[in-house]
Design goal:
alpha+beta, 2 helices, about 100 residues, single chain
Length: about 100
Amino acid sequence: MEQHRENDLWVLGESLIPKPRRRKQMTTQTFDTRHGGPWDRGSADSYYHRPRDPHYFEGATYSSIKITATGMTPEEIEAYHAGYDDNEASGDKKDWG
C-alpha cells in the first residue's frame, strides 16, 4: 500500500494542502488527491469539459500505467466521481476561448 504524506490528503471542507484545489463542496469523506489519482482525474475531466470516464494513473499522469473503471475498486470509483462532482459544483472550467 502506498504511503501518503499528510499534505497529499485533502479533507473536503478542511484544507490539509497548503494550496487549495478547485472545489468547495462540503463532505466528511477524505480522498487522496495526488496528481494522477482517481480524485484528480475526475476533477480534471470536469475542468476540461470531458465526460465521466473513471480512471487513474499508477504514477505520473499519462506517463505511467492507466487504470480504467474495470480495474478500479469501488472506493477509487467513488473518489473519481467525488473529484468530478466537486469541480462541477465549483463551476471551474477551462475557457477554450
